[in-house]
Amino acid sequence: MPTQDLTTPPTTTTAVALSLRHVTKTYGSGPRPVTALRDVSVEIPTRSFTAVMGPSGSGKSTLLQAAAGLDRPDSGTVVVGGTDISQLRTKALTTFRRDHVGFVFQAYNLLPHLSVEQNVTLPLLLSGDAVDRAWLAHILDAVGLADLTGRMPSELSGGQQQRAAIARALVTRPAAVFADEPTGALDSVTGHQVLELLRQTAKDLDQTVVMVTHDAVAAGYADRVLFLADGELVGAMDAPDARRVAEHMTTMMAGR
Q: Domains (ranges, CATH) in the chain?
């Protein structure tokens, strides 16, 4: 399957979870500013798993940060779950991220003095919201931690800690979950399990997952891969597999 042009959206009957329109982000000033994103426009449907790839310095991390409300674009709009977050004031944006955006990073960021259940429900505690026990039980079962809710992070393997981090990202039923190199600290077998879990999260738990990765194998688990180069979206691939993704990345690197 050839790489698709981004002017043709993926075939879907679902709603849009995330929309970027003409997003530009530049760092620095003076004679040598760096444009990390250049007029980026893309839509990501609900209940999908999207990977973002590109060479070093292509703007992958900046795209994730702008889409998740961690950094403001210089121009353009970012709409998450129907809310234009690029128009929110700082306090409102912080509240929106807490209540409507999930994060999974390479570092698990679990609090060592809290149990699995306490770590997972921490976003609800911070927002003052009640815990939906049925949903909590459902996601803990889905990530394979139903029998480990009382364990402390030090009693878990790396893969189990990342599963707890994924459950924490899901507990608020977010509009989107953003994962930044989520398997970077894991061995290949455990990484495979986490990637399968992220795919299951989109398919079976009706969530939207956007993952930044440099790994073609990891990208092969996604429904779609977006390719960046020099701050611009330059293509997309539906139903990817690791071989085709790797070949495309090699071609991109050769053309730089």
A: 16-106+173-254 (3.40.50.300)
